Amino acid sequence: MDLIAKIEILDSTLREGEQTPGVSFSINEKVALAKRLDAFGVDFIELGHPAVSPDVYEAVEALNDLDLNGKKMAHGRASKSDINDVVAIGVGWMGFFFGTSPLSLKHKFNVTKSEALNRIETAVKYGKDNGLKLRFTAEDASRTDIDFLIQVGQLVQLAGADRFSLADTVGCLTPAKTKELVNCIVCELDIPVHIHCHNDFGMATANALSALEVGAQCVDVAVNGLGERCGLPPLAEVVTSLVNLYKVNGDWDLGMIPELTELVTSFSKLESTDNQPIVGKNAFSHKAGLHVKAVVKDPKSYEAISPESLNRKRTLVIDKYTGRAAIENKFKSLGFAYKKHDVTAVLNMIKSRPEKVDWTNEELISHIKSIGIQV
Ligand code: HCA
Ligand code: CU
To answer: What is the pLDDT of residue 1?
Structure first.
């Protein structure tokens, strides 16, 4: 594994995240989010594509006025007018894209490969002449002929681009294919390579991490995995994997993940599912009797990552799967002095109500009292 020394995170919640069907952030929400993302420690914040609407233009202006540690990047097409917008607003970095796959060349632009190369080179030179730091994205890179992709990468590097990004625009890569593609591009270029994955087959996080394994420097994420269709790799998954599985020492405040998740859930009005890794309600819940018994002794038995490191709490579910250890633990935490047969009585009662899937403390207390056990 060849992880480079300083892995960077680019958060695209404000740009690609707002492309999620049903989502529109107000400017105030974007400003609030940008500040929290910056406090979390992302390296780049994608502010938006000014040409989308007057409101996005205004948002990019407001965001660019913020005093942030992270690098601010505006998004746009590889066109003079989009570059002019970014220059006029004064954003330091611009990420622009051009579709390089046969489908993009034919249907989006109706250009030949050499016309495409011309347009890309002109745009990069124009952006550099106007003082921008530039990331060029080969949109639909994963469906682009590899020789042409290398040609595009070398051309933008020569024209002065600072970064080259590979977009798996329709999420059709696998981890193995991602490694092959990224490895090939990293070997051909001197500028840092970025990776932008989509989750259409549920592989966005795995693909993004695979890209980092073979030398990509920066990975695009969005809080709660927002983005077109099935979205981008969720920030929480990528960052906690980097820290816990790859032992990367990033400057990220993992304890802020629940806060970021809640903020984006409330602004996007899109709930994450209960079984979502890291941020879902069930991520640190234990249910089966054997699991709870082991977790009470040592949480590591059934946890790969500690909830405390993420500012979250572990929960022990009480239902028909529950065993003695969970009930004893409950008695103790509720302050009841109990005997062995009390545990049996409570367990029997719970198991006689299989339809009830989560007993609350109040319900348990009232039952415990009803069988005559006192505090
Ligand atoms: C888009 C497509 C894009 C671009 C990525 C990038 C993709 O919404 O414009 O410019 O870095 O997935 O290819 O998000
Ligand atoms: Cu995208």
So the answer is: 66
pLDDT at 370 over 90: no
Residue 139 Cβ < 6 Å to ligand 1 = yes
pLDDT tens digit sequence for 152-189: 999 999 999 999 999 999 999 999 999 999 999 999 99
CB atoms within 10 A of CB 341: 9
Residue 96, strand partner residues:
76, 136
Q: What are phi and psi of 167, to 5 degrees?
A: -105, 125
Q: Give residue for tokens 């009841």.
A: 336
Nearest-angstrom CA–CA distance, 141 and 80:
22
User: Does 198 participate in catalysis according to the annotation?
Assistant: no
Q: Report residue 224 as tokens.
A: 């709660």
Hey, which of 139, 140, 200 would you mutate to test ligand 1's pocket, going by the most ligand atoms within 8 Å of its Cβ?
139
Residue 371 has pLDDT above 90, yes or no: no
Give the model confidence (pLDDT) of 320-334 as tens digits: 999 999 999 999 999
DSSP assignments along 261-319, one per residue: HHHHHHHH--PPPTT-TTTSTTTTEE-SHHHHHHHHH-GGGG-SS-GGGGT---EE--S
The domains of the chain are located at 8-268, 285-370
Tell me the CATH architecture of domain 8-268.
Alpha-Beta Barrel (3.20)
Determine the Cα angle at 5 with ends 283 and 146, to 5°. Answer: 90
